[in-house]
Write a structure and sequence with these properties.
By secondary structure, the chain is of the alpha/beta class. The protein has a single domain, classed as Rossmann fold (3-Layer(aba) Sandwich). The protein has twelve helices and nine strands. It has a seven-stranded parallel β-sheet, with helices on both faces. It has a two-stranded parallel sheet with strand order 6-9. Helix 1 links the parallel strand 1 and strand 2. Helix 1 packs across helix 7 and helix 3 runs parallel beside helix 4. It is globular, with a radius of gyration of 19 Å. The two termini are 36 Å apart.
């Protein structure tokens, strides 16, 4: 199977290129930036470039995108050109070329304002059935691209799976107050409880989506570490998250005390990955339990793949954690 990976110089794109090459797959990497894993330099917004790249391809994994950090450095038209027009170019050329499967990397940021409950309300339980309420042009363009995936699937029969990934970026949090309040590793391990996923598990979900797309046809899936919480925990999570974590993981407090870490006082949303586990056969490994067990042994809680790919930044014109260094 010949696979086109867009965004091959990015975090996920590089990770996928590494993994698929290790599987001895025939892989083509497309990106606007050159890199060790990019074989074609070009833009998905360039229809002629896309047409050339899809020839002879059996599958497409579309990770290329302008991200949330680009909101501060790119205008809305650039987001539309890349995230909407670029995705449409890929979908239509894939249909014309007879490509057999299409996997689109979307984001849980697409849920937007639906992720934040009203004050004193329980934490929100987020499944694929929650209606997105985008909060910025990033969310708007990603939900629009998802709609195009569904449209082309229905009109042309292109098997297309959408993976709404939660946080897997290695950079620091984009909120200055949060970065100042918690060590970075503390933040990321806390988030594995409800809204983060390790890069290796994200790659695993994409590999499974490639295999399952023809049988499933179309679907949207939340890709996040398996939460230990249930709906019964939602009210207490909003009011006193440490109490819930203490009940489920009695050993975590001593470890956190030794590390000088803290649990968040409140958690406002929880991502449920049950549909991805059921339909894709996905079994994410890097959850909160796994992380604290590794920390207790003095080990890095991240996967080797996440460490290897490392941080890339997003652009060179801003200040803060997302700037290219």
């Amino acid at each position: 199977m010949r696979i086109l990976v867009t965004g091959s110089s990015g975090h996920l794109g590089e990770a996928l290129m590494r993994a698929l090459r290790a599987d001895r797959r025939d892989v083509v990497g497309l990106d606007v930036k050159g890199g060790a894993f990019t074989t074609v330099i070009g833009s998905i917004a360039d229809r002629a470039c896309v047409e050339r790249c899809v020839q002879g391809v059996d599958a497409i994994v579309h990770t290329a995108t302008l991200h949330k950090p680009h909101v501060g450095s790119h205008d809305r038209r650039a987001f539309v050109d890349t995230n909407v027009i670029g995705t449409l170019n890929l979908l239509e050329e894939a249909a014309l070329a007879g490509v057999g499967r299409f996997v689109f990397t979307s984001t849980t940021s697409a849920f937007g304002r639906a992720l934040v409950p009203e004050p004193k309300e329980p934490a929100a339980w987020i499944t694929e059935d929650v209606a997105p309420v985008p909060r910025n042009v990033y969310g708007v363009t990603k939900t629009s691209a998802e709609g195009l995936c569904e449209l082309v699937h229905r009109d042309h029969g292109l098997p297309c799976l959408i993976l709404r990934t939660s946080r897997f970026f290695p950079e620091g949090d984009d909120r200055d107050d949060v970065r100042a309040a918690y060590p970075d590793a503390n933040l990321k391990v806390n988030e594995l409880l409800y809204r983060r996923v390790d890069l290796e598990d994200v790659v695993g979900a994409h590999r499974l989506a490639l295999e399952r797309a023809p049988a499933l046809g179309f679907g949207r899936y939340i890709i996040s570490a398996t939460t230990p919480f249930t709906r019964a925990d939602l009210a207490e999570l909003r009011a006193d998250a440490p109490a819930v974590v203490r009940r489920l993981f009695p050993d975590y407090e001593a470890l956190y005390a030794r590390l000088g870490w803290r649990m968040f006082p409140s958690i406002e949303r929880v991502y449920d990955n049950a549909r991805a586990r059921r339909d894709l056969g996905w079994a994410p490994r890097y959850d909160f339990r796994y992380a604290i067990d590794r920390l207790a042994r003095g080990e890095d809680p991240r996967s080797e793949l996440a460490v290897t790919v490392g941080a890339k930044g997003y652009h060179a014109v801003s200040t803060g954690p997302y700037t290219v260094r």
